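Researcher: Let's continue the batch. This sequence belongs to MFS transporter, and it's 439 residues. Same format as the previous ones, please.
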Amino acid sequence: MSKAHPIEGLYDLITGDEDARVCKDIPSASCNDQPRNFFVYLGANLMSKVADELSSAKLILPWLFGYLGAPGLLVGLLVPIREAGVLLPQLAVAAYIRRLPLRKGVWILGSVLSALALALMAVAALTLEGALAGWTIIALLVVFSLARGLCSVSAKDVLGKTVSKSRRGNLMGLSAGVAGLATLALGLYLQFVADAHANILIFVALLLGGALCFLLGALVFSLIREQPGATEGGGNAIATALESIGLLRSDADFRRFVIARSALLSVALAPPFYVLLAQAQSGGDLSGLGLLIIANGIAGSLSAPLWGRLGDRSARLAMALAAALAGAIGLLTWALAASASPLLADPLAFAGLFLVLGIAHAGVRLGRKVYLVDMATSETRAAMVAVSNTVIGVVMLAGGLIGVLGDHYGAASVILVLALGALFAALYVMRLREVSEPG
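Model: Same format as before. Here are the structure tokens for MFS transporter:
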């Protein structure tokens, strides 16, 4: 590949590399392919992020269930199933993935299965209603989450083999930023163009659009040039899983990271309770949904590239600042609710609160992903990702019980508790060892 190649020129412009073939911790055979792989991974990751937003269990699916007349119990199951379903099976799945010298096929399979699940959700939304529709979509959400888990456990491994340190945060930040712009466009449509009381066809179109994005992402991801990797740990899944769990005992840095990531769930669990407050003001129509989507889109498009660059310099600092920001906005939201401030009843003001929370959540997600990839080696990366995700899946299911507090004391009280948890997480994260290499 010539230095004058347009792909390398664009890669130089985005990353600031003086030589597109400089590698830090990827196989030497992947050096010349790094610019190509950077953009292929960027495109596929962008498609999957847009698809995830079009089928969001925090925003889109709850409104869909409202249209369908599904029981409130099922609405409460959406986020825990969506998140834990991705994380819990990964420890065993990683053992099978380790048998494969080339692992991009696992990501492609997960993306195709995700597309199928969303397409069937659209069919269910169009043909069913009430509890039957709700339970059918919940069942398909289980399949969807497991499929996304295949993508999650394989994506970081492929990324670690194809894109070097100090470039990964930039890559993920760019994809999240562009996806945020797409989400912003969706919110603007729902807020200003769509009928606030539009029918179910809008949600069917969103789900089918997500399915199409996953299929396009699978097609793009197939273009990655991946070098064969280590296959140790590809034997018996249970035995390998138990061996991998041992990393929590033997690797102190990894153990502290898992504890920190568990504490950072205070940020991840907060958005649904902000949505509950917003729904009380909007009545659940599309205008209220549109404002939250707009806020979420702006948060991603404005903050993700900045978090990405900070993550390349210090993923630890990115996580800590993001958690502190989430804690501060949570305390402010609780104070406004406790004082019955008229600001909280203003849809635009509330969208501003959600915007800041979205910025913080983006920083936490990107920072902890970069930190784990940089901390691990090519031999331990897949196992660490699987162990971390499995532990977090269990913790998340337990954390979902905080909704009981909301039933008794209201969403604002839950936001207060989670804000205090986020501030604790920020302090704990700063105790982690620095692993990033400034670019």
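Researcher: Any comment?
Model: Residues 160 and 373 are 7 Å apart (CA to CA).
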